[in-house]
Amino acid sequence: MNREADQKVRESEERYRTVIESSNDGVAITKKGKHIYVNPRYLEIFGFEKPEDIIGKSISCTVHPDDYKKILSNVKLNSAGKKSIRNEFKGIKKMEPLFLF
């Protein structure tokens, strides 16, 4: 690639990153059923404070059991080569520890 093409690719990636980071929709990228990226809105929706709290964890920590089979099926399709699957699902928020007195 030449320098001009490299610069255009970097600019395009930066625009895409800006759109995803500022989206009103929660966006997650998963691989083999584990979160590898989440945007700030996704963290907010599911009650996490920082990406490190969810990156590497199973999708089961945010997908409601009623929708888990459907989402898992889509994960398998994605792993088989189908890309950019949009999933809408009932979610569950981060579980907070219970303190009993």
From the structure above, extract its key features.
about 100 residues, mainly alpha
Describe the 3D structure.
The protein contains three helices and two strands, in the order αββαα. It has 101 residues and is mainly alpha-helical. The chain has a single domain (3-79), classed as 2-Layer Sandwich (Beta-Lactamase). A hairpin with a 2-residue loop joins strand 1 (28-31) and strand 2 (34-38). The longest helix is centred in the N-terminal third of the chain and has 19 residues, at 3-21. The termini are far apart. The mean pLDDT is 86.
Structural class: mainly alpha
Question: How many helical elements?
Answer: 3
- The run of helices and strands is HEEHH
What is the CATH class designation? Alpha Beta
Main β-sheet: number of strands, strand sense, barrel status?
2 strands, antiparallel
Look up the CATH topology.
Answer: Beta-Lactamase
Query: What helical percentage do the residues reach?
Result: 40-55%
Low-pLDDT ranges: none
Overall number of strands: 2
From the alpha-carbon coordinates, what is the Rg to the nearest angstrom?
A: 16 Å
> What is the CATH superfamily?
PAS domain
First-residue to last-residue Cα separation: 65 Å
What general form does the structure show?
globular
Nearest-integer average pLDDT: 86
Tell me the CATH architecture.
Answer: 2-Layer Sandwich
How large a portion of the residues is in β-strands, by DSSP E?
5-15%
Q: Going across the biggest sheet, name each strand in turn.
A: 1-2
Tally of domains: 1
